[in-house]
């Protein structure tokens, strides 16, 4: 059956009728911004599902930590747990440990919202005592108080490119040499202000 994929199956990279989101460069921009503020204890909370988004973002986080000489602190939560799953992890990170993270990066926006809830409940000031950022933008990150720095995955552009590929496929056009790649945009907000070097 002819098919066009968005965020292709990691096992079937040979299928180039695909629109991929670049889950590599934008997270590094956020991590660089955290390090520029002197925040070296940076925890990453990702989803536990085996998909391109989680695979790529985890790999980039671990690689970045190794390159910068900082300790990786990665935790996985099933995305179906949403805010409650993040709250469970965040309480352990922010309360039970003698040295809590200086910053937390999450994959899903629901995780970021859960971390913010715990931080505020514990009287931890965001962003002064804890910087917070997220790899997916949503109403949760936009309407939080304070608003949370996050990635706009540009899904409108992704959808438009997928439709273009579907039309080309239905017309019998030749298979593309490589997938289409869409780059996310960082929305800098109060939880992690944009560094002056990027303005």
User: How is the biggest beta sheet arranged?
Assistant: 6 strands, mixed
Oligomeric state of the chains? single chain
Strand content: 15-25%
Query: Runs with pLDDT <50, length 5+?
Result: none
Q: How many distinct folded domains? A: 1
Q: Please tally the helical runs, counting DSSP H or I stretches of 4 or more residues.
A: 6
Strand order of the largest sheet: 4-3-5-6-7-9
Structural class: alpha/beta
* N-end to C-end Cα span: 47 Å
Inertia-based shape: elongated
Which superfamily, in CATH terms, is the homologous superfamily?
Response regulator
Short description:
The chain has 199 residues and is α/β, with parallel strands linked by helices.
What does this entry look like structurally?
This protein is of the alpha/beta class and 199 residues long. The protein has a single domain, classed as Rossmann fold, CATH 3.40.50.2300. The protein contains 6 helices and 9 strands; from the N terminus they run ββαβαβαβαβαβαββ. It has a 6-stranded mixed β-sheet with strand order 4-3-5-6-7-9, sandwiched between helices. α4 links the parallel β5 and β6. α1 runs parallel beside α2 and α3 crosses α4. It is elongated, with a radius of gyration of 18 Å. The model has no long low-confidence stretch (mean pLDDT 92).
């Amino acid at each position: 059956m002819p098919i066009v994929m968005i965020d292709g199956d990691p096992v079937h990279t040979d299928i180039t009728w695909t629109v991929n989101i670049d889950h590599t460069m934008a997270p590094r921009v956020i991590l660089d911004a955290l390090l520029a503020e002197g925040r070296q204890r940076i925890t990453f909370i990702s989803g536990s599902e085996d998909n391109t988004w989680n695979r790529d973002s985890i790999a980039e986080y671990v690689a970045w930590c190794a390159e910068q000489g900082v300790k990786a602190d990665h935790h996985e939560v099933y995305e179906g747990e949403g805010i409650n799953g993040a709250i469970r992890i965040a309480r352990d990170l922010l309360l039970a440990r003698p040295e809590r993270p200086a910053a937390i990066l999450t994959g899903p926006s629901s995780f970021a919202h859960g971390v913010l809830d715990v931080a505020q409940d514990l009287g931890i000031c965001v962003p002064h005592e804890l910087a917070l950022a997220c790899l997916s933008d949503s109403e949760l990150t936009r309407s939080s108080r304070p608003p949370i720095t996050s990635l706009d995955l540009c899904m409108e552009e992704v959808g438009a490119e997928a439709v273009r590929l579907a039309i080309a496929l239905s017309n019998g056009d030749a298979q593309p040499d490589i997938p289409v790649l869409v780059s996310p945009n960082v929305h800098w907000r109060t939880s992690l202000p944009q560094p002056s070097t990027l303005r």
